């Protein structure tokens, strides 16, 4: 199984921390190499039975007012080209305009979206249930996976979920 995964989310939600944890060092060198004009490979994960190529999707995390119609189209087309979108959010912070903007883009993309709620090490499990409910009410995610990219909690589970969509 192999496929392309776009990992998007507001700054500081933990995207780089997650990638650093799962991406092999040797291949991480590729991360600065532009793949096409619009997709940038951030890292590749190769296991016995799968290969996952994580790419950056420019334009998706920019605030609405800074994006022209053309950039919006480019960003939306990129979403259609990947097998899966990982939408990463901070479980410890309330939703912002940035999250809403991203969800607007994802909602009608036709590509499966997994919500990754990161930084669960910072909140109480009871609180996490409320956070999950909030996101569920906003968008019909294909799957919701809480993790701690920093401590590694549930990261293996997330990798298994990703594989299901390749
Ligand atoms: P990015 O901007 O989305 O790439 O976010 P970074 O990976 O650079 O992380 C931003 C900050 O959040 C850094 O200080 C990380 O150490 C911290 N961070 C990332 N993941 C976690 C997590 O699971 N738990 C905690 N407590 N901090 C995290
Ligand atoms: Mg980063």
TrEMBL record:
<dbReference type="GO" id="GO:0005525">
    <property type="term" value="F:GTP binding"/>
</dbReference>
<dbReference type="GO" id="GO:0000028">
    <property type="term" value="P:ribosomal small subunit assembly"/>
</dbReference>
<feature type="region of interest" description="G4">
    <location>
        <begin position="118"/>
        <end position="121"/>
    </location>
</feature>
<keyword id="KW-0690">Ribosome biogenesis</keyword>
<feature type="binding site">
    <location>
        <begin position="56"/>
        <end position="60"/>
    </location>
    <ligand>
        <name>GTP</name>
    </ligand>
</feature>
<feature type="region of interest" description="G5">
    <location>
        <begin position="147"/>
        <end position="149"/>
    </location>
</feature>
<feature type="binding site">
    <location>
        <begin position="118"/>
        <end position="121"/>
    </location>
    <ligand>
        <name>GTP</name>
    </ligand>
</feature>
<feature type="region of interest" description="G3">
    <location>
        <begin position="56"/>
        <end position="59"/>
    </location>
</feature>
<comment type="function">
    <text>An essential GTPase that binds both GDP and GTP, with rapid nucleotide exchange. Plays a role in 16S rRNA processing and 30S ribosomal subunit biogenesis and possibly also in cell cycle regulation and energy metabolism.</text>
</comment>
<comment type="similarity">
    <text>Belongs to the TRAFAC class TrmE-Era-EngA-EngB-Septin-like GTPase superfamily. Era GTPase family.</text>
</comment>
<keyword id="KW-0342">GTP-binding</keyword>
<feature type="region of interest" description="G1">
    <location>
        <begin position="9"/>
        <end position="16"/>
    </location>
</feature>
<dbReference type="GO" id="GO:0070181">
    <property type="term" value="F:small ribosomal subunit rRNA binding"/>
</dbReference>
<feature type="region of interest" description="G2">
    <location>
        <begin position="35"/>
        <end position="39"/>
    </location>
</feature>
<keyword id="KW-0963">Cytoplasm</keyword>
<dbReference type="GO" id="GO:0043024">
    <property type="term" value="F:ribosomal small subunit binding"/>
</dbReference>
<dbReference type="GO" id="GO:0005886">
    <property type="term" value="C:plasma membrane"/>
</dbReference>
<dbReference type="GO" id="GO:0005829">
    <property type="term" value="C:cytosol"/>
</dbReference>
<feature type="domain" description="Era-type G">
    <location>
        <begin position="1"/>
        <end position="166"/>
    </location>
</feature>
<protein>
    <recommendedName>
        <fullName>GTPase Era</fullName>
    </recommendedName>
</protein>
<comment type="subunit">
    <text>Monomer.</text>
</comment>
<keyword id="KW-0694">RNA-binding</keyword>
<keyword id="KW-0699">rRNA-binding</keyword>
<keyword id="KW-0547">Nucleotide-binding</keyword>
<dbReference type="GO" id="GO:0003924">
    <property type="term" value="F:GTPase activity"/>
</dbReference>
<feature type="binding site">
    <location>
        <begin position="9"/>
        <end position="16"/>
    </location>
    <ligand>
        <name>GTP</name>
    </ligand>
</feature>
<keyword id="KW-0472">Membrane</keyword>
<keyword id="KW-1003">Cell membrane</keyword>
